[in-house]
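ok here's the first one, seq then struct tokens
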Amino acid sequence: YTLAGVIYFGNAHFTARFIDNTGNVWFNDGYVNGRKSILEGEMIHIDFSISPDEREPVMAIYRKN
């Protein structure tokens, strides 16, 4: 299994990160950016323990290799 995404929660609001097939991480806050996700960089350089907007992780999503 490979990490595919993380859902974050804080201040009554959810945000998410997802990892594409090349290992790039994308951040999405639908309230702020609508359907547009922001490229953050390569997975190995991202700290998944807190979101860019300082929300706590509440769920990790994995995909089967």
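and now the second one, same deal
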Amino acid sequence: MFKGDAAKLVTQLQESVARQQANLLSQAADTLKSSSANVGALALSDAARRIESAAHSGDTKLADTMVALLFTEYERVKSAWGLKIAHRSSTE
């Protein structure tokens, strides 16, 4: 569930920052912040928190930079998640 939701939220973040839609950006960041923390992806959660903060303050330039950094972290989490699932499958 997290994997699919996170992918949609990352896309929403990218689209919202490109369109400078601070309210939508803040909402997507808040949701991703919470769901990432729930699965232990704390660096991803922190990046989402920073985006949420930038959106609240209207700093779209910082938000744009942070979305790019968040995407890198998201890819890392996605890769680690895949490795964990593959490892789990090979030990069963």
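notes on #2: The chain has four helices and no strands. The mean pLDDT is 88.
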